[in-house]
């Protein structure tokens, strides 16, 4: 792999970093910030020594004032490209309060060319040999390719870059709000220096107004409603959504005066946006739950007449899963994120002709869309495994990075105001724990958890290993945690955008898992290699529940209109219907002649004979069956273990098999933290793995650019 530096090295070759080709590909083909390359060269050239944050700033941004957050962005991007784990690094080690150290083995040699230039075989070469034994062929083997790389470098850094926020140097990143809790969901008055935003702290959610440049915000609401999506109608009037106890309302409020309800619904309402060519109208999204063959309805509301119109009635073939809608400046186009089925596209809809144009298929998820100017959108979301803010050109569909998420903080919204980018961050790390019902203790698994999301843990058959899902490398992968040694190890190389709860086979040779990349994929993965041995794209979500005793098939719960259990062949992944109206739990008998299932129609456990299909009911009812998910219910010998839920409260309960679980025989054996999610019980039910998000935090920040 080759890269360009500041004269210390003509180019750099990496023989031992298997992800190096990914980095160069992203730099040259997707035009990712070349400073990532410069940072890698700087750290590698000083391998084994600490490079301070000040030295990085001086080297990469000479004579420019840049905030420390920019360094964190580059470190995150570099680690992501190298698939490096910040908690167990192979390449870049964080030295708290000092800087960073490149810990791979580095060897420098020099020779001399006929022209007298001192080189290392071709020029100054930095040979890096890491502790792993991967080898890459040199990507640049002669002077022609070296000159080509230099040309591309200068082209991207000078000629290509347009005068836009993505190509301007960041001078500093400063907080706009610094309160405890989460501040987000903001918008600006287009003619005044005012921001309105939502602040969330525990169960209290309220709206605040802040004049930019001042410290003290003004609290607008103070009640038990949950407010969201506030917008300015004029300098003294707001419109926003609020919800409580299944009620959803759109409110118009004159500051410091009484409210007016302008729309009500029993269905969820969200994403309120102004119609730019109709100052007295707003558009919003309303949950439909496929009552009209779509998940969401897109509606417009006239704030003068309170008349509601349905865009699905006036626009042909409008997708059923529209999100983050925003209007063009002239109001003639609507931009939105289409997440229908396995589609993940950003769409431009011409409202005059009802013609659709796909602007981008590159984003795996979109949290927010804002209008930067008539030709560009600001996209807050995720591309592959990288989260951040991007500038998307509406005309040529080019994408440029504006800011990358760092330190586990997701950027959930961004907007342009007064030549600055304002953005909202959100962080709620997901960590895993083990509940011990015998000792009534909760083990935090500090050696397993990191700043990333750690979730969906399951036990090995002897309870010595916990397999779990983590995005600590940027992508979601399956990892293992050996309880005795407290060591973690990456199992897969799926580079997934998400992975759902895996299921381990009886021989512990395979995982059955559903993961998401460009689409949803049902996969059988070899535990030995971490690679799929068979997989199929699937149109909708499926939940692997259990393996057959001989590992030849997997029982899968499908959720299309109603819940059914199918048996999938391990090699062909061809399904066979086992039981309608069944899901949550499956367990094949030792003689392989019958299977225990949860029957939703009966609300109880049943045994079904796989040969003659006779059914035997095992108990009378299962408590809160509709609220349980895979992993939250297990049969152990003659007992059932399950999670009891009431609001956010979580408890583990046990009941004898064959009893009425709503009766007095059910016994609460342990309280769990509120809103926790159990994903597995051990083989005797005495321990349960659960994950829980830490208290969320987030602030509104602003990017200051060089003049």
Task: Please provide a written account of the structure.
With 707 residues, the chain is mostly beta strands. It has five domains: 13-161, Arc Repressor Mutant, subunit A; 185-243 and 256-264; 267-358; 362-426; 430-693, 6 Propeller (Neuraminidase). It is 9% helix and 47% strand. It is built from six helices and 57 strands. Strands 38, 39, 40, 41 and 42 form a five-stranded antiparallel beta sheet that branches. It has a four-stranded antiparallel beta sheet with strand order 9-57-31-30, with helices on one face. It has a four-stranded antiparallel beta sheet with strand order 10-11-12-13, with no helix packed on it. A hairpin with a 5-residue loop joins strand 49 (604-609) and strand 50. The radius of gyration is 28 Å and the shape is globular. It starts with 12 loop residues before the first strand and ends with a strand.
């Amino acid at each position: 792999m080759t890269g360009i530096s500041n004269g210390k090295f003509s180019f750099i070759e990496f023989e031992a970093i298997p992800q190096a080709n990914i980095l160069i590909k992203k730099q040259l083909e997707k035009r990712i910030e070349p400073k990532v390359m410069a940072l890698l060269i700087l750290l590698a050239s000083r391998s084994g020594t600490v490079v301070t944050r000040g030295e990085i700033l001086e080297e990469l941004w000479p004579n420019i004032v840049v905030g420390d957050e920019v360094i964190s962005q580059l470190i995150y991007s570099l680690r992501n490209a190298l698939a490096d784990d910040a908690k167990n690094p192979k390449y870049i080690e964080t030295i708290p309060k000092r800087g960073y150290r490149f810990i791979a083995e580095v060897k420098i040699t020099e020779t001399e060319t006929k022209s007298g230039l001192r080189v290392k075989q071709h020029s100054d070469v930095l040979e890096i040999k890491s502790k792993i034994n991967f080898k890459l062929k040199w990507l640049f083997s002669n002077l022609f390719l070296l000159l080509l790389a230099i040309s591309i470098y200068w082209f991207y850094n000078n000629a290509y870059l347009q005068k836009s926020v993505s190509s301007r140097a960041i001078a500093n990143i400063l907080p706009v709000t610094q309160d405890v809790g989460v501040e987000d969901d903001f918008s600006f008055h287009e003619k005044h220096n005012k921001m309105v935003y939502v602040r969330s702290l525990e169960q209290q959610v309220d709206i605040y107004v802040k004049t930019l440049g001042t410290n003290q915000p003004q609290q607008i609401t103070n009640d038990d409603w949950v407010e969201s999506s506030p917008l300015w109608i004029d300098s003294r009037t707001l419109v926003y959504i609020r919800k409580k106890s299944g009620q959803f309302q759109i409110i118009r409020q004159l500051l410091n005066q009484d409210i007016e309800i302008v729309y009500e619904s029993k269905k969820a309402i969200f994403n309120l946006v102004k119609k730019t060519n109709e100052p007295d109208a707003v558009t919003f999204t309303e949950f439909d739950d496929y009552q009209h063959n779509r998940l969401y309805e897109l509606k417009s509301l006239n704030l003068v007449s309170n008349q509601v119109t349905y865009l699905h009635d006036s626009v042909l073939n409008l997708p059923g899963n529209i999100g983050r809608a925003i209007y063009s400046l002239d109001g003639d186009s609507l931009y939105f994120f289409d997440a229908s089925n396995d589609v993940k596209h950003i769409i431009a809809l011409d409202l005059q002709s009802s013609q659709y144009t796909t602007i981008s298929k590159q984003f795996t998820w979109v949290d927010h869309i804002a209008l930067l100017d008539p030709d560009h959108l600001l996209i807050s979301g995720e591309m592959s495994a990288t989260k951040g803010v991007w500038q998307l050109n509406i005309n040529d569909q080019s994408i440029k990075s504006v800011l990358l998420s760092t330190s586990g903080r997701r950027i959930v919204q961004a907007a342009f105001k007064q030549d600055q980018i304002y953005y909202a961050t959100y962080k709620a790390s997901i960590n895993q724990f083990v509940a011990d019902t015998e000792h009534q203790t909760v083990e935090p698994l500090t050696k397993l958890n990191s700043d990333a999301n750690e979730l969906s843990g399951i036990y090995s058959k002897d309870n010595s290993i916990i397999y779990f899902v983590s995005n600590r490398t940027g992508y979601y992968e399956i990892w293992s945690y050996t309880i005795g040694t407290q060591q973690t190890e990456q199992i897969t190389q799926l580079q997934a955008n998400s992975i759902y709860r895996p299921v381990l086979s009886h021989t512990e040779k395979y995982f059955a898992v559903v993961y998401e990349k460009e689409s949803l994929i049902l996969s059988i993965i070899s535990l030995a290699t971490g690679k799929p041995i068979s997989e199929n794209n699937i149109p909708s979500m499926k939940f692997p529940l259990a393996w057959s005793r001989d590992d030849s098939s997997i029982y899968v719960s499908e959720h299309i209109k109603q819940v059914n259990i199918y048996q999938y062949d391990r090699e062909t992944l061809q399904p066979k219907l086992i039981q309608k109206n069944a899901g949550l739990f499956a367990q094949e008998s030792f003689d392989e002649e019958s299977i225990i299932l949860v029957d939703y129609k009966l609300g109880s456990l049943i045994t079904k004979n796989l040969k003659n299909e006779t059914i035997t009911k095992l108990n009378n009812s299962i408590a809160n069956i509709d609220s349980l998910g895979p992993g939250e219910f297990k049969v152990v010998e003659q007992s059932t273990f399950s999670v009891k839920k009431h609001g956010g409260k979580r408890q583990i309960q046990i009941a004898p098999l064959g009893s009425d679980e709503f009766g007095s025989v059910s016994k609460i054996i342990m309280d769990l933290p509120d809103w926790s999610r159990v994903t597995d019980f051990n083989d005797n039910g005495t321990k349960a793995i659960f994950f829980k998000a830490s208290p969320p935090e987030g602030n509104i920040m602003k990017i200051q650019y060089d003049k």
